[in-house]
Amino acid sequence: MIDMKDQMAEEPREMYEHHRIVADAGQAPMRIDKYLFNRIINVSRNKIQNAAKVGAVLVNGKAVKSNYKVRPDDVITIVLPHPPREIEIKAEDIPLQIVYEDKDVIVINKPYGMVVHPAYANYSGTLLNALAGYFKKSGTKEVENGFGYLVHRIDKDTSGLLVVAKNELAQTHLARQFFDHSVERVYQAIVWGDFEEDEGTIDGNIGRHPKDRRQMTVFPDGSSGRHAVSHYKVLERLGYVTVVECRLETGRTHQIRAHFRYIGHPLFNDERYGGNLILKGTTFTKYKQFVQNCFKILPRQALHAKTLGFVHPTTGKTLHFDSILAEDMQIVIEKWRVYAANREV
């Protein structure tokens, strides 16, 4: 009996799915890979076996191998990378900033403005198109599908680090880490306003806004959405804006953007969440011109995925990567430093 099948990340960004199955009381002994193959739609037995290899198949809370024999009333859970959409990925010659690469994974420092996966209105110019071009040009034969296997995403107008698997086993291993929230992800952001405390935690369910499906919103009473936790630390106070570091416990769509608007500190120039308005400061014309100039320099939400850490799917070693803050954010921060210093005089 299947009593739950949950897409564990919000549409349209689901990277993995979670199944929970309770074996019938009269279940005869059967290999678990065969059992799951018979019960989960559109999944290969090889993918199930890969999930078992990386500990992503659990029976009664304990990881099992593919040859485990299912017994009556067993509670089985499995985490699988979500099947790719039926979209042709065409190779394109697009420059990539590659931070790290081996036979299993590739880590990219994505520029803002680049969509990760082709979708409506963005069928070219995406990260996967760029990877397809890169793998084709380099003659890489270890990537079976030609463009890599996604395990997470960052927004089009968010810059920074993300990891792509080069084979299905690595994808399954990394998907389990993201599902378990064991991946280290640290962002830097510029947000409107100042903070009373130097650090804090935002805890509130995040789900689709009931009136605008393009937005996510916080449901503090837990009546809707999915559990989301963001930790933040003030890095620099610049008067009307603040530079913060954000560490994610969960990975919900627009989590940082929605959480910071919820606490009254929208990301600087985040049009979707109101940060493209002058929310703090003076009414002087020169100040308005200063902010508008900053918006032109940084024409997107001020958010950068700065740090990424995960366990390598083959070696078991912990890999840690750090990136330099995107140039447009650096320039705007420096402009605010100068403004704040002159304002204090």
Structural account:
By secondary structure, this protein is an alpha+beta fold. It folds into three domains: 80 residues, RNA-binding S4 domain (Structural Genomics Hypothetical 15.5 Kd Protein In mrcA-pckA Intergenic Region, Chain A), CATH 3.10.290; 79 residues, Pseudouridine synthase, CATH 3.30.2350; 161 residues, Pseudouridine synthase (2-Layer Sandwich), CATH 3.30.2350. The chain is built from seven helices and 19 strands. α1 packs across α2 and α2 crosses α4. The longest helix has 18 residues. The protein is globular. The N and C termini lie far apart (71 Å). The N terminus is likely disordered.
Summarize the structure.
This protein is α+β, with helices and mostly antiparallel strands and 345 residues long.
Which value, in Å, is the CA radius of gyration?
A: 22 Å
Q: What is the residue-mean pLDDT, rounded to a whole number?
A: 88
Order of helices and strands: EEEHHEEEEEEHEEHEEEEEEHHEEH
**At the third CATH level, what is the topology name of the largest domain?**
Pseudouridine synthase
CATH homologous group name of the largest domain: Pseudouridine synthase
- Tell me the count of domains: 3
What attributes does this structure have?
alpha+beta; Structural Genomics Hypothetical 15.5 Kd Protein In mrcA-pckA Intergenic Region, Chain A; Pseudouridine synthase; 5-stranded antiparallel beta sheet
